[in-house]
């Protein structure tokens, strides 16, 4: 009989619990034993593995964070460290592992797959930066958290006629900044995938003020520069009263949205289905609203791209 293990790894994301729940329930539904690996790859190496029952995933679909805990484990790159993890799985007769995480976590899964453990990746990260899926689990929730913060900041920005610079997460990807900028009506969106000319930003703020604009919102992705660096750069060109806001880890927390819960449920269950069909070394995703699978090699082939049309639209709407 197949035995499946599941872990969450890298930065946590709202909806990871829903994906974990789906993996456990779908496995049990199919009559498969399922094991939870606690604390990501670190827990795999430390043998922090427990057999799970239906009740272990009760009352978690609505919770942020990850009940399986997460950790970053740079040592996992070492073959002898990975071997310990493989031995811990094999000692229990576990031959398959589902990894819920970002592309860093997928790299560990790819190595394990080459070394005899069948693995499937489930995209769990707020960054939306993984190839082979239109959306990652956690992106929608983080986006809504950011938009809520931008709306609040806009209120005070208007009252005080200030320019606000809001720094958002995303590592080296601009999806969160771009989507939040469009949804929050930001005047300027700075993302790593497009050139950032602060002189042009300054000129646009000035033109806006001359037209009677009371405030300006700049959303800067952390992969471009920090909010304080952006403020410093801006003040080289114009004399504006700026305030900087770094949204930080609050973007990673909170109840997952309904969209993230449904996405996580679909992808978690699909990962189990693929393992049952004998597929491994792949990541699951959602593309054009259909479930899809992409080999890890293809996922890593190129850097994730932003939606160019959405970026152009953001420019057109923020004139
Ligand atoms: O990958 C998710 C993410 O939240 C990124 O957006 C951010 O750059 C990073 O993780 C922060 O990592 P840590 O929690 O280790 O500070």
UniProtKB/TrEMBL annotation:
Substrate binds at residues 125-127, 162, 169-171, 222, 243, 249-252. It is found in: Cytoplasm. Allosterically activated by ADP and other diphosphonucleosides, and allosterically inhibited by phosphoenolpyruvate. One of its GO terms (cellular component) is 6-phosphofructokinase complex. Pathway: Carbohydrate degradation; glycolysis; D-glyceraldehyde 3-phosphate and glycerone phosphate from D-glucose: step 3/4. It is an enzyme of class 2 (transferase). GO terms for molecular function: 6-phosphofructokinase activity; AMP binding; ATP binding; fructose-6-phosphate binding; identical protein binding; metal ion binding; monosaccharide binding. ATP binds at residues 11, 72-73, 102-105. The keyword Zinc does not apply. Its EC number is 2.7.1.11. Mg(2+) binds at residue 103. Its cofactor is Mg(2+). It catalyses: beta-D-fructose 6-phosphate + ATP = beta-D-fructose 1,6-bisphosphate + ADP + H(+). Keywords: Allosteric enzyme, ATP-binding, Cytoplasm, Glycolysis, Kinase, Magnesium, Metal-binding, Nucleotide-binding, Transferase. Its main location: cytoplasm. GO terms for biological process: canonical glycolysis; fructose 1,6-bisphosphate metabolic process; fructose 6-phosphate metabolic process. The keyword Kinase applies. The active site is at residue 127. Residues 3-275 form the Phosphofructokinase domain. Catalyzes the phosphorylation of D-fructose 6-phosphate to fructose 1,6-bisphosphate by ATP, the first committing step of glycolysis. Belongs to the phosphofructokinase type A (PFKA) family. ATP-dependent PFK group I subfamily. Prokaryotic clade 'B1' sub-subfamily. Homotetramer. This is ATP-dependent 6-phosphofructokinase. The gene is pfkA.
């Amino acid at each position: 009989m197949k035995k499946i293990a599941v872990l969450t790894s890298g930065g946590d994301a709202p909806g990871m619990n829903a994906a974990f729940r789906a993996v456990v329930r779908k496995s049990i539904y199919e009559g498969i034993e399922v094991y939870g690996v606690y604390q990501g790859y670190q827990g795999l190496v430390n043998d922090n593995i427990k057999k799970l029952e239906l009740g272990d995933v009760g009352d978690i679909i609505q919770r942020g964070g990850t009940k399986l805990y997460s950790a970053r484990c740079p040592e996992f790159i070492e073959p002898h460290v990975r071997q310990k993890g493989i031995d811990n799985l094999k000692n229990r007769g576990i031959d398959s592992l589902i990894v819920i995480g970002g592309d860093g976590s997928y790299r560990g899964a790819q190595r394990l797959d080459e070394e005899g453990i069948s693995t499937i990746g489930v995209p769990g990260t707020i960054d939306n930066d993984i190839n082979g899926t239109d959306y990652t689990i956690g992106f929608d929730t983080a986006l809504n958290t950011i938009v809520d913060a931008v709306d609040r900041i806009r209120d005070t920005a208007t009252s005080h006629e200030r320019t606000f610079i809001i720094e958002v997460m995303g590592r080296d990807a601009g999806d969160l900044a771009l989507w939040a900028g469009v949804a929050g009506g930001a005047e300027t969106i700075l993302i790593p995938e497009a050139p950032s000319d602060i002189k042009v930003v300054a000129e646009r703020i000035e033109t806006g003020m001359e037209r009677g604009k009371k405030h300006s919102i700049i959303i800067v992705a952390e992969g471009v520069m920090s909010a304080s660096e952006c403020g410093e750069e801006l003040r080289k060109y114009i004399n504006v009263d700026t305030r900087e806001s770094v949204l930080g880890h609050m973007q990673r927390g909170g109840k997952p949205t309904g969209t993230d819960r449904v996405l996580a449920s679909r992808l978690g269950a699909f990962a189990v289905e693929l393992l049952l069909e004998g597929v491994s070394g792949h990541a699951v995703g959602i593309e054009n609203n259909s479930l899809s699978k992409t080999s890890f090699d293809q996922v890593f082939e190129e850097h994730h791209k932003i939606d160019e049309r959405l970026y152009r639209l953001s420019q057109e709407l923020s004139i």
